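Suppose a colleague, Dr. K., hands you the sequence of a protein chain of 224 amino acids and asks what its three-dimensional shape might be. Before reaching for any lab equipment, you can write down a predicted structure in token form. Begin with the sequence itself:
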Amino acid sequence: MTTGSGPLLAADEPPAWEVDHAHGKGTAVIVCDHASNRVPRGLKLLGLGEAALASHIAWDPGAAEVARALAEHLAAPLVTSGYSRLVIDCNRPLASEGSIAATSDGIVVPGNQLVDAGERARRAATLFHPYHHAIADVLDRRVVDGLPSVLLSVHSFPPSWTVSAAPGTSGSPTDAILGWRCCCSKRSPAMADWLSATTSPTISTTASTIQSRYMVSSEDCHMC
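The predicted structure, expressed as tokens, is then:
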């Protein structure tokens, strides 16, 4: 059984989230739930090797780069998660099996076997909730400033995924998924709960479209 006590993050480890362009005045607010494959030091890489942690099971390769380029081009605030989706997935409800995956894409995650309630709560309190609160804070501040917000959630997926595995996309291995929600100011105080839902509509755009519209090169996208 995997259980933990004490702080999940050491004092010298990066925070659970990062905000860039916090006061951007564009209409979009961009989030990247799977920006990093970092694992807290105390979790000992979850028992995985470098190859597994570099793969798509641990993060969305290239998504952070695309998100940063979009944020720069659109003058948009950007909130990125600081740790791997395998530690806790910031794009899954906490009660779901995928929140802390015991296996992913056929790979067993040793550090996620038989995780008890205390460890789940520790990961959620340290990583999941602070990330979503950071998004809510950005959106709430924009409400105060009288700014409308369209939320763009940036993800990537590997060539092995098909249309059925990535709904709303063309099935091309160069697709980046941009999930969107129009953020109504009346809902902003409850944004943290609302953001954790996984039922947002999606649109898809290819790396070449990103290149032409947002000046990101396909080499930078790393979507293939």
